[in-house]
Amino acid sequence: MNNTLLELKNISYKYKNNLILNKVNLKINSGEKIALLGKSGSGKTTLISVLNGTIKPTHGEVKLFNKSFDELDRKKKRKITTIWQDLRLIEDLSAEQNVNCGLLAENNFYFALKNLLNISSFKKAHKYMQLCRLHNSTYDKNIRKLSGGQKQRVAIARSLIQGADILLADEPFNNLDPKLITIIKNLLLENVDKNNTKKSPKTILVALHRLDLLNDFDKVLGIRDGKIIFNIRRNNLKKLHLDKIY
Amino acid sequence: MNKLKLNYTSLSFLPILVCIPIGYQLISNIHFGGFKLFQEFLISAFNPKIDNEIIISVINRLNETILVGFFSWLVSIIFGAIFGILSSNIFYKFFNIPNFFYSIIRFLLTIIRSIHEVIWGILLMQIYGINFSIGIIAICIPYIAVNSKVFAEQLENIDYKSFESINQINAPKFSSLLTLIWNPIINTFKNFGLYRLECSIRSTVILGLFGIGGIGTSIFLSFQTLNFRELWTYLWSLAILIILSGLIFKKIKFNNTNKIIDIIFLAVFFITILFSFSYFLYFIFHNNFENFNSVSSLFKSSSDLGLFDFLKLIFETIILSLLSTGIAISLPPIVIGIFNNNTSKIFIKIFAFLLRLIPTPIVLLILLTFNNPSLSLAALTLGLHNAGITSKLLFTNLDSQDKRNYIAMKSLGISKKTSWLLGLFSQQAKSYLAYCAYRSDIIIRETAIVGVIGSIGLGWQLQESLSSFAWKEVSIVLIAYSSIAIVGELINGKIKNSLT
């Protein structure tokens, strides 16, 4: 049975005459946990943006659930969530309002309005903020008043609350201390948390720099100058592979 | 020899050179017949008429002014926000609408904005006759376009990455759009809304001078009958209204987290939209269309306006704008720099307040008592009024500026004036010039007001053409006005961008 969720076919992306992605072919299957490695500027963020449909490639085709992105309805597109490297939170809103934005897709306009007026229920948002170890006192604080680590966790909570099947994360452990990194990594990679209250997306692609975090991933993808250099099982990863991309 | 290098400080002073041709023409046009009237006008300022009759009249006229000002503000700020959304690129990106529509709506709003509310007022009065609704509509038309520009600019400052992020959640488009624009809209309203209310009240006064009603009409009638004591009663009561409203606006602080205020905003928003639409329909179907029918003769009416005369009027309007802008830019820093002590500052502030307070047509009419109508006189009037506004901004910025450089320079034995120039003003010059660039947009539009009164430029021609129902000429003049304002706005936009 074909269980490919996301597929990139011969993808190239040019920006101001620079080739950022060069003939990338990639298949992401259901349930896979993939680590994306590469130097800064190698094309990791662009690859994630192509995968979630934010950037349209110059050449090639992106398929989600075996259909081209343009053919998909919004319900299907919602199956992807992204934790952006630069977080992309809405600066004027509070932390809980930002997390609630993750619920916009499954609710109507009235919910969006109530969220902005601060009169919607934040119960679900608080649950996810708690899972991300955000303290009660941060819930109603404006995003601008939070520390880098707190903002990072708000962005993670916003993505998780979406309940998507596929999580794309661009360096999600930035700004976090070692203890929090372990907690957040478990939160993202373990399907069910210890209270059985939350399900992480089954399929995950995470761009990261820290090699010590690779242990929990099934596959490792190496990218350099916009080209996929290797796409292997994590157990097969050797120093030789890393030398090719760093 | 070293090359002359211009910097922001010298650029702030150079435009004062416009005073040379202005002064020359004013001196050659002077006549002494009206000095007595002018003297009487000045003396009456300290001896305004106060009795029961006039106090009741002042209260009634102020009520009318506040009412027209308030309603035109409410409608224009709310519809300004709606058109701001419709004319911001974020709306078109969200709904994947071709940029063509974005350009069209922006262009239309620019045209509407380019025509001063006085022109809209005169035009509507000619069509519908005099009533209060005309005042509200005349202010609303350009104000909606002005406000929409401010809202659109704020919306275009939204980080594109936030847009991508919210778009990627794939929520219903309206929910995503609302989430993204809600706070910029509310914040713009909180920061900018009350200032626009003040502008709206001022515009109501100006329109009153042209017969719309309110305190402006009483001011004009008092002037026409040369009843200066009564005139000053109205002017001082207007001053009290402006000072009081300024104090109240300063006290109003919006709490960002107050959801009740947000809900009230929302309720007022929907009520105003409903009210405006029903009122608009009522206005359309319950008015006398007798004069309106004369618009249908637009294509039949002939124009006696020769090309040469027309070009001359355009040229006059442009020169009038340039001369007035020169005065508005340079006069405040020169006067503040020369009379740089605490007592003089108080007098300058009072004088600047009076320049802002007394409507330009009245200043022009006063000056006409001892000077023949000329381009220079109109430029001086418009320039002085706007210098009153630019000096307010300059004072505010200078007062809040760090004075360490100024103190350090004075301690070195440098003169007070030089220390002020290099230690204080030079740091403000760039932002001051940027504001003046914005102000010159307004000056171009205001040339219509002084033009109508001072027999200068297109404003005067418009008045003439309207009086004789020469709609073809009216259209030509409006197109010319609009074109000058749009070109001016483009040039000033470039200047502002290079300064900010």
Describe the structure.
The complex is a heterodimer of chains A (246) and B (500). Chain A is of the alpha/beta class. Helices cover 28% and strands 26% of the residues of chain A. In chain A, the strands form 2 sheets. Chain A has a 6-stranded mixed sheet, sandwiched between helices. In chain A, helix 5 (123-131) crosses helix 6. The longest helix of chain A is centred in the middle third of the chain and has 14 residues, at 148-161. Chain B has 500 residues and is mainly alpha-helical. Helix content of chain B is 79%, strand content 0%. In chain B, helix 4 packs across helix 13 (259-285) and helix 8 packs across helix 10 (173-209). The interface between A and B is medium-sized, with 36 and 28 residues.
Spatial ordering of strands, largest sheet of chain A: 6-7-8-3-9-10
Sum up the overall morphology of chain A in one term.
globular
Alpha-carbon distance between the termini of chain B?
A: 32 Å
Order of helices and strands of chain B: HHHHHHHHHHHHHHHHHHHHH
Low-confidence stretches of chain B: none
Share of residues in strands of chain A: 25-35%
- The radius of gyration of chain B is 24 Å
Tell me the CATH superfamily of the largest domain in chain A: P-loop containing nucleotide triphosphate hydrolases
Low-confidence stretches of chain A: none
Query: Strand-residue fraction of chain B?
Result: under 5%
Number of strands of chain A: 10
Task: Classify the helix fraction of chain B into a percent range.
Answer: over 70%
Q: Which percent bin holds the helix content of chain A?
A: 25-40%
Radius of gyration of chain A: 18 Å
Q: Could you tell me how far the N terminus lies from the C terminus of chain A, measured between alpha carbons in angstroms?
A: 36 Å
What would CATH call the class of the largest domain in chain A? Alpha Beta
